[in-house]
Specification:
By secondary structure, this protein is an alpha+beta fold. The protein contains 7 helices and 14 strands.
Amino acid sequence: MRLRLATWNINSVRLRLDLVERFVRAENPDILCLQEIKCEEAQFPRAAFEAMGFPFAAVTGQKGYHGVATLSKVPLAGVDRLDLCGDNHARHVSVMLAEGASISKPLTLHNFYVPAGGDVPDPAVNDKFRHKLDFLDALTTWSGAHKTKSKNRMILVGDLNVAPLEADVWSHKQLLKVVSHTPPETERMAQALASHDWIDVMRQHVPPEEKLFTWWSYRNRDWRVSNRGRRLDHVWMTPALDGAATSMHVLEQTRDWERTSDHVPVIVDLEID
């Protein structure tokens, strides 16, 4: 089965619905995972996504904050939601591709939005940073609890709010004390990856030493000229799906769109049996 999967922190789905429509027309994803939808489930524009060709949806919403949504053209089943830190934040939704999706074995897709962590990288004085570290620890525990690493077919996407590698930021030395690239965060992300032998799909397609960004701050007057980016958005797969991702693209051009998100979409094309 050929499948085009996209993930995008849209930074308010209702505010940027026209940009989502533009993206869908241009790139035609089969499954679209959004983060920071910033609305409750009742306010999510389901009808608009049905009109775009997504009859299946799984949404976890919250008023004004957070929130994730997975929209699909292929049938979904087994919707689930995790509350890793017990704070009732809308930061996860998972779905299984249903039998009508024409795959031979079950496949689960997880859509995450990891806490940003605030501005001060000190958990003793910044509760938001402490929360982020706790969330990453809980993610590792949850991931490691899954058995049969060689057989589980899982994909994990989303805004994980960590730029783990030196080439995932514009300046490794200058960002070592900046939230998203500090050692407590990058070490925890490495632990999360190792907990279930996850494959970093984006770095399968772009060598780890090459710069790769998915986010550029609104504070940059000219983001292309300064290019002070970070790779905060990720696509992971379990070993059972190794080789399924035939291509990967980061849609940098969307950062030039009017009133756009500070994140850009990531697209992965898949061949799944």
